[in-house]
Amino acid sequence: xSSSETAAAHxxxxxxWAMKRDNWRRMWYRFTxxxxxxxxxxxxLVTGLAAIFADYIAPYPEHAxxxxxxxxxxxxxxxxxxxxTDPVGRDVLSRIIYGYRFSFGMAIVVIALAAPPGVILGLVxxxxxxxxxDSIIMRITDIFLAVPPLVLAMAITAVxxxxxxxxxxxxxxxxWPWYTRLVYGLASSxxxxxxxxxxxxxxxxxxxxxxxxxLPNCISSILTKMTLDMGFVIIIGSSLSFVGLGAQPPTxxxxxxxxxxxxxxxDQWWLTTFPALAIVxxxxxxxxLGDGLRDVLTVEEQ
Amino acid sequence: xxxxxxxxxxxSAGYRVYxxxxxxxxxxxxxxxxxxxxxxxxxxxxxxxxxxxxxxGVLPSNGRVTGGQVLFEGxxxxxxxxxELQRLRGxxxxxxxxxxxxxxxxxxxxxxxxxxxxxxxxPGMPARERRQRAIEALASVRLPDPERLLNNYPVQLxxxxxxxxxxxxxxxxxxxxxxxxxxxxxxxxxxEDQVMRLFMRLVEERQSATIFITHSLGVVRxxxxxxxxxxxxxxxxxxxxxxxxxxxLHPYTQALLKAVPKLTGGGIPKGIEGxxxxxxxxxxxxxxxxxxxxxxxxxxxxxxxxxxxxxxxLVACYQY
Amino acid sequence: MGMRxxxxxxxxxxVVVLLGLSLLIFVLVRVAPGDPVRAALGPRVPQxxxxxxxxxxxxxxxxxxxxxxxxxxxxxxxxxNSLMTRRPVAEDIKQFLPAxxxxxxxxxxxxxxxGILLGAASAYRRNSWLDNAIRVLAYTGVVTPAFVFAxxxxxxxxxxxxxxxxxxxxxxxxxxxxxxxxMVTVDSLLTGNWRAFVDGLxxxxxxxxxxxxxxxxxxARITRASLVDxxxxxxxxxxxxxxxxxxxxxxxxxxxxxxxPTVSILGLDFAALLSNAFLVELIFNWxxxxxxxxxxxxxxxxxxxxAVVMVLGVTFVTVNILVDIVVAWLxxxxxxxxxxxxx
Lengths: 302, 320, 343
Hints:
The structure holds 3 protein chains of 3 kinds.
Chain A: H1 3-33, H2 35-52, H3 54-57, H4 92-127, H5 132-146, H6 149-159, H7 164-190, H8 194-201, H9 206-242, H10 254-262, H11 270-301
Chain B: E1 6-17, E2 20-32, E3 37-41, H1 48-56, E4 63-72, E5 75-76, H2 82-88, E6 93-96, H3 100-103, H4 110-121, H5 127-140, H6 146-149, H7 159-170, E7 177-181, H8 189-206, E8 209-214, H9 217-223, E9 226-231, E10 234-240, H10 241-246, H11 251-258, E11 307-308, E12 314-315
Chain C: H1 2-30, H2 36-41, H3 47-56, H4 63-75, H5 89-124, H6 129-143, H7 146-160, H8 184-190, H9 194-231, H10 234-241, H11 246-253, H12 255-283, H13 289-298, H14 302-330, H15 332-341
């Protein structure tokens, strides 16, 4: 390439980036128009950061594990222990923060594992809609979707021992079909778009068509779903822990904390109430954020 | 002279939107006599549909009528109670819409929708008679096999058939005034012509008056008795059809007529400079002045009123 | 006609799906590491007893033979014996299923009816305080897990304000009605036992409402969105123009097309209901199938687990078929598409 050509290519790329940045700035502006979306973003950021930096933020990091201090057990909120202590003397606030780390970690793992295969299957099935491979993929998807979600997760946990890892695998296994369904619908309508047909005519490889033409146009829906799913996986994860199928003691998990604390109501109300509020807050955050993303991204597509 | 059927006096209306209030209609005045066929022309966005909806009282939830009167048979519809309005609508005053596919409820059969209107206006009528009337209505719009059609859903009908069904719906009761909002726009040209003929014939038969909203001057010239030209929310000119085409007075009308391609000579038609104003911040005074070749600030201070220049010809322009 | 072949098509699909599900369950169950019999019976039971049980459960045969045996026996209603209760699983199911059905039924009906009601009220009084209140409530319902609601209701309405009972299906001192359907409320109605009916109903309220909150919220949101969308459509304008009363538009002509997306989601929400049932059953000590299932899981009672999953799977599939039929009935456009394809 001659020097003038490289310069031109450079300029083109610079221009492209400038346009992208401008695009993002516009999206951000539109995003901030809805105060609820911003609230959601703030919640997610705060809880997320708390989860990552739990060791530094939690007032009593050592309480996250097996720690006993009967002298300070069952203390009501206030003073040294902002949200009170549990029956063995652990600080509720610290455990909640570590519980967030746990929930976030699990949700991220589940979605990171469930989304890619789900999306790929959906792309393939949608693009090849009407053929055998479509039927096969969608039948399998239907089978997985035929069982009420938690039931399948529980059954899997039953087969293996009840612990976090298995719970995550179980939830992943029941989660991927939703991505397939979502992308299937999108891909099968997008494959009739002109740019796809143009790519076909030009002899582009199937890989290129699926991943460079169709997928980018599904990204916004997928991202929105992933954000909303974070909240739902957290709900499911805590539900499993609530019945003892997920995290095992002494691991701090919000669901387990609610379960354990329920026995002590209404006197030691803080034991259940705060973990329950913690769950609701973080799920609320993801929902608000997801809704905000949806509003911004779908308008973009128009 | 007998009382006009409909008299709209200085009607103003608009929509509340995010950035403020869109003052679409700015003092619309028109008169419809019994049996008269009025054409309402204007470019897209000039407020024709808003006028229709304001007259009928069916503005959307963010729409407001801000001033003026709508006198139907002498009674001001703006003062009427919702029940009165509901009773008028579909009986004395009815309408046909632009997109027949959208105007029909997709989950109810044709028969059910016709029946609903009949039931609303004739509560005592027995079911068999309603069915009979429905069949007659479908037959009057030249739809084949009306009995079977009663059980069909809109999704099963073609565009032209749907429009005929809409006409049948509108004509179920002998309305005195039928407002038609560009009924041919969504159809192929040949179908549009058929539907036009049908509609005009029915209007003639029932001796109803009609306000026919369109942006097609050809239709107006062929079928209408009188024409109202609308621009940016007010009437700029009104005259009997022949008179208007022979002697257009308002600069907008003149430009409009020049913009229509003619079969006999005339050269290439010229478009009109500029575009429809932003209703959130409309031009002060005469709304046409930014595009008007005759404009001068001292001559055209405020919004011009409609003046009668003889021959039943009204125009709103400072030249006259 | 199109409808009949549509139903047939769905039935065949469902059978295929259920077969696949059974395979899935079978694989899961048999792949379990360790010896389930040994695990259930404990380490002190002599080996020959364990071996006998294993032979009885055919655990040493090749897998496909096991599957065929298993599927044939399942279809005959023989789910094997529960390692927990030491009796046929079928018996257990017969005992516990009606309780869950009763709960799911009440919760489902409540969820659908109230969801649609609230969603409609919200749409018709758009942007009023009622609308905003309902939207907030619906949002809360979506982000709060069912067990939080259950615990909340239990504590608030059970312990704090003694409005509703907190455990079981009937008060201790109440005479239970004879088992006709197994559902306390239905049976007591059928036998004219009014007091038992009322009492059974009171016991149902808290768990059913807690269970339904998530689905109710979804239904309300979707109904609202759908109504708001449809109310702006041209056909509603046409209805108003032709003089149809606002009330008939509200209750019928605008509502019917808006119900289509709502009912479509009903199947999913019902699935969520069945899933979350175990949470509620555990908290309220409701003797239902899900609670039985959870215990089976915790004790690795493979026969019971497999049976419970199959039963729930069949229920769910059935509900889905019903939902599809209702949606097709509501939306003639779908019916036309079906008629054109199958016919």
